Amino acid sequence: MSSVRGVTMAALTLSLVVLAGGCSDDDSGDDTTVDLSEIAPTPPPGGELLCDFLPRESVVLALGSDGFEESSSLLTRDSAGELSGAGCSVTLDGQDQQALSVDVDWALGILGSGFQERLTADGYNQLPDAAGLGFTWTQEETRPDDSEGDTTRAWLLHGDRIVQVWVAMPPDGRDSEADAAALAQQVVGTLELPAEWTLAGAPPAR
User: How far is Cα 133 from Cα 61, in angstroms, rounded to an integer?
Assistant: First the structure.
């Protein structure tokens, strides 16, 4: 059984603010400092990109650790140079399942209809207009370290594409819904996704 927990809309303000650090327990039981700096909605200039589109330093913040590696990568374009699909996942050291993943796909079929339904459904925290059309939510489930705990997701529509971010191992002390939303916005920038809706029918709307 999963449960959805709301957060305040104020927590989704995605400006770059440096906050005080927090602490969480690592696998050995020692306290480790978690950087509570917010992730900006724009990609950091000149930084390393995982899978050629996901800013590494933002993933470090979202996971509270730099001990991870890419576990899957996808970035394809058609003959005209238009993005066909993108995906990236990372796995924390010592774990087998992905701790964070990002997928970019067309707003079609089940994905498109599911996005539209969640725009008006209870339990989904709608993004402010400045962040784009989308939402976040927190869900309790089995995490990559086999613990039962919160995971967070963000879905963001930009043009014809939906960017999906899943943080499966959010560290204590961070606002992981804001992290997921900011990562989605950064991916829009790094992939230079077009803003126009060109698919058949009307675009999703609240």
Answer: 24
